[in-house]
Design a protein that fits this description.
about 60% helix
């Protein structure tokens, strides 16, 4: 599926070069070979129009059984994620060290792909801290790669880290409904924090995202109701 989408956007020669990178990673998943292949993706894609994107409904089943939602991704982002998914399951510490090195030396576009690929990685429990780091990023595209359309956070973050993701999404004005699992992971502590945030917004005369009230409603207490009624007056 990856190959057919990417291949439709590039020459036969370009796709062959890309697949050569994939084969190299499968045969030799050592740090040097993987770093060379990952950093060389841009050259392998050659003249592909970086503005091209995959279809809005594109979705794959990732290595850990999670959905990988690729709608709206650029072709080069998809190609990079395809390569990351081709890295075989080697010994745990070696694999984590290899991936950590990719994160350490990645440029902004490469980081976007690395965080987008979280649902693909082996040893998924090892990426919780990395996921939280992406949520704190000041780079919009990187932060959005973690927060939006990404199934990893809702499956692997603990409640505190999950609540921080949702709060950060409100602070940075992300489309909350694009957060995978936002209703399923809703909880009372999050609702209380959102009410605090709503009071701050109201005191500053700023608008409050209506989705906030949808998340607060199942846990609404007197304090939440009072603010809701005040806003409605």
């Amino acid at each position: 599926m990856f190959a057919s989408i990417i291949g439709s956007s590039m020459s036969v020669e370009g796709l062959a070069a890309l697949e050569a990178h994939m084969d190299a990673v499968r045969r030799n998943p050592g740090p040097a070979a993987v770093s060379r292949a990952f950093s060389g993706m841009s050259r392998a894609l050659g003249a592909v129009d970086r503005r091209l994107s995959v279809g809005d409904a594109a979705e794959f089943r990732a290595g850990q059984g999670l959905p990988l939602r690729t709608g709206g991704w650029s072709v080069i982002r998809l190609a990079r994620v395809w390569l990351l998914g081709a890295i075989p399951e080697i010994e745990e510490d070696a694999y984590v060290g290899l991936m950590d090195k990719l994160f350490l030396y990645a440029d902004m576009d490469e980081l976007e792909a690395l965080y987008s690929a979280l649902p693909l990685y082996h040893y998924p429990e090892r990426w919780r801290a990395r996921c939280s780091e992406g949520i704190r990023s000041n780079i919009d595209t990187v932060r959005q790669a973690v927060m939006l359309h990404n199934a990893y956070p809702s499956h692997y973050l603990d409640e505190g880290a999950w609540n921080q993701l949702v709060l950060k999404a409100f602070f940075t004005h992300e489309p909350i409904r694009d957060i995978v699992g936002v209703d399923e992971r809703n909880n009372r502590r999050l609702a209380d924090a959102l009410v605090d945030y709503a009071y701050e917004r109201h005191a500053a005369g700023r608008a409050i995202d209506p989705v906030l009230w949808e998340l607060v409603e199942p846990f609404a207490d007197k304090r939440a109701t009072e603010l809701w009624n005040r806003i409605g007056e």
